[in-house]
Amino acid sequence: MNILEADRLSHRFPDGSMGIHEIGLTLRKGSFTVLAGPNGSGKTTFLRHLNGLLMPTSGEVRIKGVPVREDPRRARRLVGMVFQDADSQIVGETVYDDAAFGPENLKLDRREIHRRVLAALDAVGMSGLAGQRPHLLSGGEKRRLAIAGILAMGSEVVILDEPFSNLDYPGVRQVLGAILDLHSRGRTILLSTHDLEKTIAHADRLLLMEKGRIVADGRPGAVLGQTERYGVRRPCAVRWGRAVESWLN
Amino acid sequence: MAELTAFGYHPGDSVLHRLDPRFKLVCLIATSLTVLDSGMAALGLWSAACAILLVKTGVSMPRLLRELRYFGVLILFVFVARAFSAGGDPLVRFWGIGPSRQGMMEGALVGWRLGLVVLLGLSLMATTRSWQVKAAVESLLRPVPFIPHKRAATMIGLLFRFIPQILSAARETADAQKARGIGNRRNPVFRLVKLAVPLLRKTFLDADRLAAAMEARCYTEDRSTPPLSAAAGDWSFLAAVCALSAVAWVLSRL
Ligand SMILES: Nc1ncnc2c1ncn2[C@@H]1O[C@H](COP(=O)(O)OP(=O)(O)OP(=O)(O)O)[C@@H](O)[C@H]1O
Ligand SMILES: [Mg+2]
């Protein structure tokens, strides 16, 4: 079943330049897709259309068959987004408040909110930090908190925009672990990056973007050969003719 | 980056943390108004009360004082201006003018009042989450006609959310410029402009990102935040503040 469909999506910025151009994409429920492309290729611009933060100049996005334009709130509930910048997506004064922000906006009752927040913090291994100030967390913890905030909303598709930027090795492993955990619980994952090394071992699909277009789409094994033509470095192991290993091993 | 300024919420479980935010807001406004009208003895009383409550909140005092040093400069300026301009007999003279005893007393009084009001405001900021401020403003404004209370409350709540962020951005920008030798430029206007331009830019960018993050999580004005409920403790705190105000009023008129 296709949970998300984008149809000939184009976006023209107010200054006249084209952000993305005629992008078509369908995501199968439960898939793990990596969207790779160099800086400025339009990854963020594209992803922001999928939950209605940006509206296309032409084309359409449908979540489970319903156009985003018709019901952006539904789209935002179903499609959760972790942003590129870890700090500016924190909205609560404590870790608990931040994770509760989404469910509060959905007007759930307090008991249900409490239950969801505890479950979400537990799922990303942050139960012990519930009373902490989010700005004092490490980079990896901030990203995991953002993931918990989405979990608590009950999103079915999780979009992560460069979730590993600025993270050290343990940070990458923590966040990657949380993402794989989501995936194993049946969430659909779409992750953007310009560095394939950390994620490609787990993905079942690889998209390459260049200058606002999707230029390659397929199983990682089939697409990895072309990445360097589009400004994305091939993982080392592939260069040596081996399979890429997971960062969790 | 991690360590934020003293302005901003500090999680804790002190008297002030537990107090109903509506009561805190009302007490803050009432005490600020009385403090601005208090004499030395009453100010001493207020300061002691404020200090006790602030210490209980767990905010680090040395850091608080460090954060407030620029404000201290302002108070000093007010003091000097008063000392020289209040009339009376100058103690020493430079070119015909000088600080008078009476002026210095008056300056100290005004400085003390201002400083105390700032500390009172800080103790509110340190112990109240922005959604609580929002809920309190909303609930207090509800009976007032012609005011969009939900929108006003959202704005004030966000303001609380942003002040610490702007201050920490200001410090980061200032440090980056110090590292590139802005200390060698003597012209304060030049330095202010060089600080303000990137700071404003960054603030608007951050606001934009925050708005996107909030929107992505379905933000609406009508949310299910925990209900505010006043307990016996809140009323007794309010009573204590009223009693203190009465004592201060009497002290100021002796
Ligand atoms: N509001 C805007 N107006 C005009 N151009 C914009 C606007 N926002 C982004 N762009 C441009 O659109 C292009 C794509 O930007 P986008 O942020 O989507 O790229 P990206 O693939 O996410 O890059 P990065 O890896 O750096 O995050 C860039 O060239 C950018 O300068
Ligand atoms: Mg981007």
Would you kindly provide a written description of the structure presented here, covering whatever features stand out?
The complex is a heterodimer of chains A (249) and B (254). Chain A has 249 residues and is α/β, with parallel strands linked by helices. Chain A has a single domain, classed as Rossmann fold (3-Layer(aba) Sandwich), CATH 3.40.50. In chain A, 31% of the residues lie in helices and 25% in strands. Chain A has helices at 43-47, 72-78, 95-105, 110-123, 139-153, 169-184, 220-223, 236-239, and strands at 2-12, 18-28, 32-36, 58-63, 66-67, 79-82, 157-161, 188-193, 205-210, 213-218. In chain A, helix 6 (169-184) links the parallel strand 7 (157-161) and strand 8 (188-193). Chain A is globular, with a radius of gyration of 18 Å. The model of chain A has no long low-confidence stretch (mean pLDDT 91). Chain B has 254 residues and is mainly α. Chain B has 2 domains: 6-128, no CATH class; 130-227, no CATH class. Chain B has helices spanning 15-18, 21-35, 40-57, 61-67, 69-85, 101-127, 130-141, 149-179, 188-216, 232-252. In chain B, helix 2 packs antiparallel against helix 6 (101-127) and helix 3 (40-57) runs antiparallel to helix 10 (232-252). The chains are: A alpha/beta (249), B mainly alpha (254). The A-B interface holds A 48, 51, 53, 73, 76-77, 80-81, 83, 85, 87-94, 97, 101-102, 104-110, 113, 131-133, 135-136, 149-150, 153 and B 1-4, 8-11, 129-131, 161, 206, 209-210, 212-220, 222-226. The complex binds adenosine-5'-triphosphate and magnesium ion (MG). Magnesium ion binds at residues 43-44, 84, 161 of chain A.
